Amino acid sequence: MKQYTLDPQALIGGVIAEDNDQQLVQLSLQRDNEIPVYETDAIVLLIVLNGSAQITTEKETIDTRGLQVVRLEPHEAHSIRALENHTNILVVKQLTHELVFSKKLRFGSCCL
């Protein structure tokens, strides 16, 4: 088990932790800061911790507020723009998305 502490005063943010399967990134944005269009082969979760942000893909734009989560599919190009100061977003990039565990393990029936 590992524990990480986010720095709400961080300038822009950065990678918190990463391994072969997953990357955790903290974004600390001020109003109108924008992360330009970005695409990855990972499943991406954008967890807006506080503040608000606009997430834009080729197909749609979503305004998010604190405690909302946006899920992006692999290769779904997107940009992020802060709508207010002190917008903190935790980005979880799931770098591998093949089914690794059996259904028994996935639903909590371990070691049978």
From TrEMBL:
Domain of life from the UniProt record: Bacteria
InterPro entries: RmlC-like_jellyroll, RmlC_Cupin_sf
The protein's name: AraC-type arabinose-binding/dimerisation domain-containing protein
